[in-house]
Design a protein that fits this description.
The chain is mainly alpha-helical and 97 residues long. Helices cover 76% and strands 0% of the residues.
């Protein structure tokens, strides 16, 4: 039997997984794929909004170690850039109409 302490599961992972299942998982994107560019971009932006909100919620939780917080911040910056790119793409697509 191992004496190593068990690592608690991250709350964000459980909450994200639950919300992913509750909102239909990737079903929206699969439906959007058959609906044209605008629908796809809107669905991608919706996913990016969700990721950004989840990262922001986790960053507000002060219970992480400094190392974990640094890793989450670094990942958040990537998510934020993806969110901004999806928003820009959606705006360009809408302007082209």
């Amino acid at each position: 039997m191992s004496t190593a302490p068990r690592r608690p599961r991250a709350r964000a992972t459980r909450a994200s997984s639950w919300k992913w299942r509750r909102t239909g998982g990737g079903r929206g994107l699969r439906i959007a794929l058959g609906s044209g560019d605008e629908a796809i971009i809107k669905e991608v932006e919706r996913g990016e909004d969700y990721l950004k909100e989840e990262f922001e919620r986790v960053l507000e939780d002060g219970r992480m170690s400094p190392g974990a917080m640094a890793a989450v911040r670094e990942a958040y910056e990537s998510v934020r850039r993806g969110h901004d790119e999806a928003s820009d793409l959606k705006q360009r697509l809408e302007a082209a109409d």
